[in-house]
Amino acid sequence: MLQIIPLDGDSATGEPLSKHVYSALLARVPSGAEANSESLTVSFSQFLIFVSEQWLLVFALLLSLNLLLFTESRKAGPALSPQQAINLTNKSGGIFLDVRDSKEFKRAHISEAINIPSANLPGRMGELEAYKNKPVIVVCRMGSSASAAVKQLRANGFGNAHRMAGGMMSWDEQRLPVTNK
C-alpha cells in the first residue's frame, strides 16, 4: 500500500515532497493481477506530479502546440515540391504565378511564369481568368508569402491553386532552369 505524505513535504529533513513521492512510487512495484490496475494509477500519479512541478514546461508546450496549429491553419493547404509542381503543370496545363516584386522576377524566374506581385494581385486577378480551372502554382522567394496569394486565389474561385514549398530558393537549390527574359 502507498504511504500518504503530507503536502508540505518532510518538515524533519526539509526535503521537497517530490523526492518522497518518487521514492514511495518506486519502492512499490505492482506484480501479478494487481499490476494492471495499479500501474495506470501510478503512471497517472507520476504524470500529475510532473505537471505540478514542471508547470512552466507544460505551459510552454501547450502554447507552442497552439501556435503551430494557428500557423498551419492560416496556410493555404499543403505545399508542393518543385518537382510535384512541374509534374502538375505539365500534366494539366497549369501555370506558375510568381508573386515576387518585378526586380526579383527580372533577375531570374521560372520559364513562362506570370509575374503579379502579391500587393497587386487583387487588382490584377482578371489576368488569370483563363486559368481558373487549371493548376496555378504560386511561387515567392522562400515559400512563405505565397500562402496569402493562394488564399486570395481560392477565395476568387481558383480551386486548384497551390503554393510551392521553399519558393525560388528551393527551385534554385535543385538547380532547375530559370530565365531572365
Chart the SSEs and their pairings.
Layout: H1 17-27, H2 34-53, H3 55-74, H4 82-92, E1 95-98, H5 102-107, E2 114-115, E3 136-139, H6 146-155, E4 161-163, H7 167-173
Helix pairs in contact: 2-3
Structure description:
With 181 residues, the protein is of the alpha/beta class. The chain has two domains: 17-74, no CATH class; 82-173, Oxidized Rhodanese, domain 1 (3-Layer(aba) Sandwich). It contains seven helices and four strands; from the N terminus they run ααααβαββαβα. The chain has helices spanning 17-27, 34-53, 55-74, 82-92, 102-107, 146-155, 167-173, and strands at 95-98, 114-115, 136-139, 161-163. It has a four-stranded parallel β-sheet, covered by helices on one side. It is elongated, with a radius of gyration of 28 Å.
What does this entry show, briefly?
The protein has 181 residues and is α/β, with parallel strands linked by helices. Helices cover 47% and strands 7% of the residues.
